[in-house]
Each structure stands twice: as structure tokens, then as C-alpha cells.
Amino acid sequence: MPERNLKRVIAATETSDGAGVRLRRSIGQSPLARLDPFLMLDEFGTDNPQDYIAGFPAHPHRGFETVTYMLDGHMLHEDHLGNRGDLRSGDVQWMTAGRGIIHSEMPQQTEGRMRGFQLWINLPAAEKMKPAAYRDIPAAAIPEVRLPGGGRARVIAGTLHSGGADTPGPIQGLGTEPIYFDIGLPGGGEFRHDLPQGHNAFVYLYEGVLCVGACDSQPLQRRCAGVLGAGVAVTLRAGAEGARLILLAARPLNEPVAQYGPFVMNTREELEQAVRDYQSGRLTA
Ligand code: MN
């Protein structure tokens, strides 16, 4: 099988969401910038409280999963059923919206750095209307592996194979078989890993410069998503200053996507039903 090379670069664009939180959106900045089953990736990262303090007051979701990964900061999640989840540095919340959730995501700090990611992963048609569910994963439950040659990888989803050992992450067994690694490499450090053939995959670089695959084109720049081509193994090599990135892969659904804001279904009729259900208070019923 060929090596996976860099197929497409999606530079993040600045946007705001919620009640005015500044974000950088790469995957999902337009319908043509999705990567099945990944619908969206937002990076939030700032030292200025004005960029995050307003948070995300109560809002709905239906039909997909949201994965929030905090690098720095403190956020409180509350839903309409009274479920609460505290997200602190290094924690992950994996939320399956299913048929519906109404929740808020609010900063619990008034100063200092807030940094992290929110990823949206689509659900297959057969699972879009299942009951909502949460996995709150504390930092201590996310294994961190020292890589040969320096660097380290945190394993959020899927299984990392390194130095002859397998390290499973806390998220396993979902229909889209996601892989989610957070990788830090020293200057010139290399990371090589197999991804299941047929999975769509991308890297998002949040610090440094990164050479992807054969590196016969320009290296990937900070705040860019690099979509990987077909193949199995991918090789990532950091520039002289080192690199920090997330590596994501999942099985594509190959189903039609109909999206209206926080509702992601297969058809326009299902979207209209979601809006009616939300307006009449039956989204989550
Ligand atoms: Mn939300």
C-alpha cells in the first residue's frame, strides 16, 4: 500500500460562534471542506478573556457527536436534564447528541489562557436518533506514550502502536472507529503510524511546522488541517522548532449530509423535523 501523503491543505479561518467566542475553523468551514465523517474542527486558543468569556449559552444538537478537548482552561458543561461536566486542562468530553441535546458550554475562568478543540463527527443514519450520551474523560484516564526518538502522544481514541506495545485510548468501539491522537514532537522528531485502509484522515497543526508523508510539497503550517491521501502508513516529521498536532482518522459513512447549524441529518425533511421538534420542545423527547 502506498504511504499516505498530503492531499489537501485547509487553512483555518477566523470565525465566532456561541455568544461571541473567537474560533479558528478548518474542517467544515464550508460544506466542501468536510472530510466524511468529520463535519467540523474548531480550535479555540487565546490569552484574552474577551475572546471566550461569553461562552456557548443553551443551544441544541441532533444527529452527530461533539468531542471537546481542553488543552488549557476550565469549562463547565450543563444539559437540559441537569447533567454537569467539568472540563479542565487535558480533559475530553465525548458527547453523542443522538436524537437531541440542549446544553451550554461556559468558561469557568475570567482570566488566563483558554485553549482547545471541538470536533464534530457524524453519526450513521441508523444511530442519529439514539438517546444522547456522554463520556467525560479526565486527563488521568488518557494514556500518554513516550515515542522512540523523543516526543509523546496522548491516546484519546483508537489504539496507538509504538515500540512493539499497543496502547488503547478510552474511546473504543464506535461505528466510525475513530482515531484521535495528540502528538508533540521535538525539533526534527518523527512519528510514523499505520491508519486503517479506507479511513479518512487528517492532521491539524497547532504549533510549529510539519512535514507530512513524502514531504515533496510545502511543509504544513500552523493552524492548517492537512488532509491525508489514500494508503496506510503516515510519516510526520517536525521542523526545527518541534511541532504539536492532532491526528484524526475515521471510517467514512458515505451517506448524504443535510446540515442546518447544529442539526446534521441525511435529508432536508429530517432537518425540518428537527427544527419543528426543537421549536415545540420535543427535540430530546
Ligand atoms: Mn454544543
What would you note in describing this structure?
The protein is mainly beta and 285 residues long. It has one domain: Jelly Rolls (Sandwich). Helices cover 4% and strands 52% of the residues. It is built from one helix and 23 strands. It has one helix at residues 268-279; strands at 6-11, 13-17, 21-25, 38-46, 56-61, 64-72, 74-79, 84-88, 92-96, 101-107, 114-122, 133-137, 144-146, 152-157, 159-162, 165-168, 179-185, 190-194, 200-212, 224-228, 233-250, 258-260, 263-265. Strands 1, 13, 14, 17, 18, 19, 20 and 21 form an eight-stranded antiparallel β-sheet that branches. Strands 2-3-4-11-6-9-12 form a seven-stranded antiparallel β-sheet, with no helix packed on it. The longest helix has 12 residues, at 268-279. The protein starts with 5 loop residues before the first strand and ends in a 6-residue tail after the last helix. The model has no long low-confidence stretch (mean pLDDT 95). Manganese (II) ion is lined by residues 56, 59, 61, 66, 103, 105.
Question: In one word, what is the shape?
Answer: globular
**Cα-to-Cα separation, first versus last residue:** 47 Å
The pLDDT mean sits at 95
| Ligand types | manganese (II) ion
Largest sheet, described in full?
8 strands, antiparallel
Helicity level: under 10%
> How many beta strands in the DSSP annotation?
23
Reported by name, the CATH topology is Jelly Rolls
Radius of gyration computed on alpha carbons: 18 Å
Total helix count?
1
Q: Can you tell me the CATH class?
A: Mainly Beta
Query: Which superfamily, in CATH terms, is the homologous superfamily?
Result: Jelly Rolls
Strand content: over 45%
> Would you tell me the structural class of the helices and strands?
mainly beta
Domain count: 1
Name the poorly predicted regions: none
- Element string (H = helix, E = strand): EEEEEEEEEEEEEEEEEEEEEEEH
